[in-house]
Each structure stands twice: as C-alpha cells, then as structure tokens.
TrEMBL record:
Residues 21-229 form the Dienelactone hydrolase domain. One of its GO terms (molecular function) is hydrolase activity. The lineage of its organism: Bacteria, Bacillati, Actinomycetota, Actinomycetes, Micrococcales. This is Dienelactone hydrolase family protein. Keywords: Hydrolase. InterPro entries: AB_hydrolase_fold, Dienelactn_hydro, Dienelactone_hydrolase-like. SUPFAM superfamilies: alpha/beta-Hydrolases. The keyword Manganese does not apply. It comes from Arthrobacter sulfonylureivorans.
Length: 232
C-alpha cells in the first residue's frame, strides 16, 4: 500500500460552469480514478480523509464539492442544504467530475469508480445510472435523499452497497428491495452487505455519534478490494 498521498484543491468544468473539489494522488503519482461523494454535511475533513485513504491504496481520488464550500453544523442545516441540491443538478456536476478524472494525466483507468455516503450514496447510484459504461464500480454507503434514482436501467457498473440493520434513515428492508430493483432493471452485478449498525456508521467524525469501528473497518476493506478489482 502506498503512503503519504499528495493532495490539491482543483477546479474543473461542470454543468456549463466551474466546480471545485479535493484531489488526492497516490505516492506513485498515478492510478485508477475514483470519485468520492460527500455526505449532507458538505466537503468536510472526513470526506477529504476518505480521499486520502483511497490515494494511500493507489487510487487517484477526487471529492467534488457539491455545496460550493458550505459546511453544515447540525442535522437541520444539513437537511436544508441537501434539499436545495436537486438530483439533476448534482448528477450534472458529478458528470463533470467524471470527465475531469478520465482526462487527467494521472488516471490510468479507462473507467472510474464511485464511492459515497448518505446523500453521496444516493448520488453514487444516480451517477452510475447516468454515466453507463464510464462507471465500472459504484459503492453506496447507506445512500439516502432525493438523489436516489427511480430507475436503474442505465446502470452498467458493478455495485457493492453497505447498509446498517439499525438504520432508521434508510431501513434495511428498503435497501434490500433497492438491491433487487437494481439487479432486475440493469442486469448488473449487485451485492449489498448489512451490518449491525445505525446510519452513518462509517463516519468516525459523525457529530451524531453513529460511528461503529468494527463495521466501518469491515465495510471499508470490502469496498477498497472491490474498487481494486473493478476499476481498470
């Protein structure tokens, strides 16, 4: 595993304008591309840390800023910010991130992977449905919000999901139904894992205290290996 990834704040074209993000590069200087999609809190230190951890595993990781620099300080504010980001707008912005990564000189893969959390998990699925074969691996962690698509017919990516059995924001039964819908509508490889954990169990900086280290460690190891296997 590579260590000491480098990072930079970047600007890229998206949806007819400019978007911003955090780009983490592996020590080798190049690798497969992965998009990291934020929770409803914004592009906070935890999401940058996720990008850094992926870079340490050899990926070129881009975390787009969906909220234009704004950071939420509590659940009410986060919910308001999420509600003001329509699925179509967020997906267009993320499409620019796909274009940026695939054209980046450090990216060695012909496709990109995606990983996202909470709201970002919903956008992972929306982006996979929108981008088709350009997304080879999609990893939603407890994806919720208006970003969750109604149809998965456009999905060509392999999907690995991570959900909590005690998640009250997106109940496990709903996630299991989603897994079957994706499989039925897209024919893609789909595998959802379920953990004895609440919503946001992967976030070790979660202000609501939902972090569960054992579940987070297991889910992360599965996700990293999946991305290594699928993003070429």
């Amino acid at each position: 595993m590579a260590e000491n990834p480098t990072f930079q704040n970047v600007t890229f074209e998206s949806a007819g304008g400019e978007a911003h993000g955090y780009l983490a590069l592996p020590e080798s200087g190049s690798g497969p591309g992965v998009i990291v999609i934020q929770e409803w809190w914004g592009l906070v230190d935890h999401i940058r840390d996720v990008a850094d951890r992926l870079a340490a595993e050899g990926f070129v990781a881009l975390a787009p800023d969906l909220f234009g620099g704004r950071i939420a300080h509590d659940g009410k504010e986060a919910g308001q910010m999420m509600s003001k980001l329509p699925e179509a707008e967020g997906a267009r912005l993320l499409a620019g991130a796909v274009d940026y990564l695939l054209a980046h000189e450090a990216v060695t893969s012909s496709t990109v992977g995606t990983i996202g959390f909470c709201m970002g998990g919903g956008f992972v699925l929306a982006l996979a449905a929108q981008q088709g074969e350009r997304i080879s691996a999609a990893v939603p962690f407890y994806g919720v919000g208006q970003a969750v698509p109604k149809s998965y017919e456009g999905v060509r990516a392999a999907i690995q999901g991570h959900y909590g059995e005690r998640d009250t924001s997106y109940p496990a039964e709903k996630a299991k139904a989603q897994e079957e819908q994706i499989r039925r509508e897209s024919g893609a490889e789909v595998n959802y894992y379920f953990y004895d954990a609440p919503h946001a169990f992967h976030n070790d900086e979660n202000p609501q205290g939902n972090y569960r280290p054992e579940a987070a460690k297991l889910a992360w190891s599965r996700a990293v290996q999946f991305l290594k296997d699928k993003v070429k």
